[in-house]
Write a structure and sequence with these properties.
The protein has 206 residues and is an all-alpha fold. It is built from ten helices and no strands. It has helices spanning 3-33, 45-57, 72-84, 88-114, 117-129, 131-138, 143-158, 162-173, 180-195, 199-205.
Length: 206
């Protein structure tokens, strides 16, 4: 095996780690400029935070909680809050970690298709610095958890890991309704596989 073949996975792993750390560092810097971890809630973050607290204290049921997005994200933040504190600052730390995770997975998907690692790194960094993603990565919103789950579902599908795909896609759907797009797409691929006579793949992805 050539040194180049051996170094490729190591290079990919190093880039993945860098793309995990970079958005966290960038979001931390911006958050400090905006007032730090204890800054007052930003926009809709206030009622997201209150819903997380309701879940953590067990004073709301899934049937009547006061949000329009599915409940999984609030359950995740509530669990984090029980472990590390329900202060807004603590929950924002989880947002940062999710932003790093989503960025690293984004790089892995871009690297798979671009054929140019530098291009994949550049695009992943550009997306991480986008104001929408940066804001979602430093405040308590549902976006970063959904993005991480959606990317993991797509990568699992491409790697032909149906169990991991099913878990990630289900949790993505329980985080944001937009997850239905992934389910429909993969279901469509299953139907096409059936039509083409590949019963195993067709039934598996359906």
């Amino acid at each position: 095996m050539s040194a180049r073949a051996v170094s490729a996975p190591a290079s990919r792993a190093a880039a993945t780690y860098a793309l995990f750390v970079a958005p966290i560092a960038f979001d931390l810097l911006v958050l400090q400029v905006l007032g730090g971890f204890s800054r007052e809630p930003w926009g809709d973050e206030g009622h997201f935070y209150e819903t997380v607290r309701l879940f953590a204290h067990g004073t709301v049921s899934i049937a009547d909680y006061p949000e329009v997005v599915p409940p999984f994200v609030f359950a995740v933040y509530a669990l984090w809050g029980k472990l590390f504190g329900l202060q807004l600052a603590s929950l924002r730390v989880l947002s940062l970690l999710l932003a790093g995770t989503a960025s690293a997975l984004q790089f892995r998907l871009l690297d798979r298709f671009s054929g140019d690692r530098r291009l994949a790194i550049g695009v992943a960094l550009y997306l991480a610095a986008n104001p929408y993603f940066a804001g979602a990565g430093m405040f308590v919103y549902s976006d970063m958890l959904f993005q991480a789950l959606a990317l993991f579902a797509v990568l699992a599908f491409l790697a032909r890991r149906p169990a991991w795909y099913a878990l990630a896609a289900a949790l993505a759907l329980l985080t944001r309704q937009y997850g239905i797009v992934i389910v429909i797409a993969v279901g469509g691929i299953g139907l096409v596989s059936l039509v083409r006579g590949d019963r195993r793949a067709g039934v598996g992805w359906l």
